[in-house]
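An instance follows:
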Amino acid sequence: MSTVTPLRAAVVGVGHMGRHHVRIYSELAETKLVAVVDANLERANEYARKFAAQAFADIEPVIDQVDLVSIAVPTVAHLQTAKPFIEAGKAVLIEKPLAGNVEEGRRIVDLAEKHGVVVQVGHTERFNPVVRAINKMGIRPRFIESQRVSPFTFRSADVGVVMDMMIHDIDIVLSLTGQPVAQVEAVGVSVLGPHEDIANARLTFADGCVANLTGSRLALKTERRIRVFSEQAYLSLDYQKKTGVAIKKDANLDVLKIAREQNLENLAQLAGGDYSKLVKIEPLSFTDEEPLRAELLAFVEAVRTNSRPVVSARDGLDAVETADKIVRSIKEHNWKLS
């Protein structure tokens, strides 16, 4: 039986997310973890010893040793860290967001296209079983409502809640609609620092679809939910609990049939009936696969086949551009305070 030679992998930055990249690369049959890089060499050594790799404090000696790399350094360093790898023809996965601003995001996209290198962005929620379930249904959203709130972790105090948390939902709604954003209206409040800690954005897309996104890092508990309304179905899903339900039009044709048979002018005339018995509510089932593992496997497959990754650099740029529009709208909001 033939075997495929594992791709040599490295991780740059072993903080909150990077350490999980290290673990998963060491576990995958498709990859061989060869290097762990962190400015804190003691931390790099800790993970390198644990997962049988070499530790480095700088990327320079690592570039020629790898086929692919995950970059999990602070966002402000994404461009300067990714650039040498891309120019050397190495595949790169950059943790979300792609960059701290639109200009740097565009430079990464240009570099990837110029050198023909696979660059994937770490929007891990795309690999959440909940999001995958929505994608499988193939619906065309007309309205999307998302809520992502949690207590402040203080890990991303250098950016606001839009780039820290809402960026996940921005990427998801962009992928679900497949449409350009036509209008942005947003409001936000800074409480603990100079950047917004609570934000709400209303995005209107070119086809008329509307998305209402709420993000807060001042909540007392964590909640991550999304509701999708379409002509084919209504979906209500919980990212965190990995639960969800769907009310599908084709599964509820009996309700419409009852209305026709009883010559009802509208469904309101069914008032008083048992909603749960009249309307078929379908629980959705999800796999238990770890989203980050699925993300790295997809990255490896894109590298092997030299194909477009699930979340490309251009996708990541679209999310950053939309986030930038939201932040600018927040700053331009006119508070009429007496």
